[in-house]
Structure formats: C-alpha cells, structure tokens
C-alpha cells in the first residue's frame, strides 16, 4: 500500500525564536520585534531569518498573533505629603490675569523623571484637600518645567473646604534628561491665604496629597 505523507497535522510550538534553529513549515515561535512581542508561523523552511524587523515580516513567516506596543508601562513614580502648606499669591481674577506661572504660589509636590522612550507619554494624577481663608476663587496647577499642563479651581465661601484633582498627559517626543513635574498652590483671586491639608484657618486636617507619574509607551 502506498504511503501518504500528511505532513504536520497541527502547529508545532517551538517557543522563543532562535536564530540558529532550522524551522520548517507550520512551526510557531514567539519573537520580540523592537518592543512588540508577537507569535509567528513559518510558511517557508527557514534558518537565520528573524520573523520580522521594524514591523516588516520576513517572507518565511506570517503573523499568527500580532502584538501591540501601546499601553506598556515603562516606569511609575509616586510622591505624597501631609504637610500643611499655604500661599498668599494673588492672581487677581478668575481668568488668572497675573501672577500665574511656575514660579508663583508654593509648591505642594514635585517629581523628577527621565523618559525611557521618545515615543511615550507621562500620565500624571494628583489629588488633595484645600481651603482658603476668605470668600474667594482659588486654584492649583500642574507644571512641566515652566509650562502649565493643567489647572483646577474651586470657590471658597464661609470657610468651605474641598478636594481638587488634576490629570495631565505629557508627550515625551523631543524630551531628554530629567523632567520636573510639580503641582503648586496658585493662591486666590484677591490674595486670601490658600491652604492644603488644613482647614481655612490653617488647622491640620491630617489629610494627604498625592502625585503619581506613569510613563506609558504609545
């Protein structure tokens, strides 16, 4: 009776790609191209041909499951403080017409971080409890160096206190070296004293402010 060669009747998992291994059709490997991990299936017998380079497939391979670089966390930095801080900075009106820069007010928290990639973003989150010593409009701001990332404000009336949060997104393209991200008490419209971690009279509320910076690959 004649013998019929059916070849492989299922994929053969060969694990992580090895440049010295001889692969045959229907072999399956995993390989990281740049920072993207994918699985590949051999379509032409191959030795010494990486499955893909810079996202371009070699003719000996097809994607079995293509990975994605997006969303990969590269690093996380965190800081917090429960210190009572205040600022008497006066930015004059709710449209921040004066005295509203990275050198005004008082710093609450700061993080220095060096990007690990030029194709990533810093995702920044801050939260804290605030009050002011008079009926006023008060504000906080997040700064990347001397550039304002975002700001938040609240209306203080009759000793009202409350929480403010900031969320920022900073592109690392073109950045090099250590980057400083800070959150500052920007004071009030009118110069009434603004407080963090205390009530409107500066009494400690035993609260804490938090700043987290996460570098995420695109």
Strand proportion = over 45%
Radius of gyration: 28 Å
- The helix content is under 10%
Order of helices and strands: EEEEEEEEEEEEEEEEEE
- Provide the residue-averaged pLDDT: 92
Number of DSSP E strands:
18
Q: Count of helical segments?
A: 0
Structural class: mainly beta
Shape: rod-shaped
> Which stretches of 5+ consecutive residues score pLDDT under 50?
none
User: Sheet bearing the most strands, described?
Assistant: 6 strands, antiparallel
Distance between the termini: 59 Å
How would you characterize this protein structure?
By secondary structure, the protein is mainly beta. Helix content is 0%, strand content 54%. The chain contains no helices and 18 strands. The protein has strands spanning 12-16, 22-23, 27-33, 36-42, 46-47, 52-53, 56-57, 61-65, 73-81, 85-87, 106-113, 120-132, 136-144, 147-156, 161-171, 179-188, 194-196, 209-217. Strands 9, 10, 12, 15, 17 and 18 form a 6-stranded antiparallel sheet that branches. Strands 1-3-4-8 form a 4-stranded mixed sheet, with no helix packed on it. A 4-stranded antiparallel sheet has the order 11-16-13-14, with no helix packed on it. The radius of gyration is 28 Å and the shape is rod-shaped. The termini are far apart. The mean pLDDT is 92.
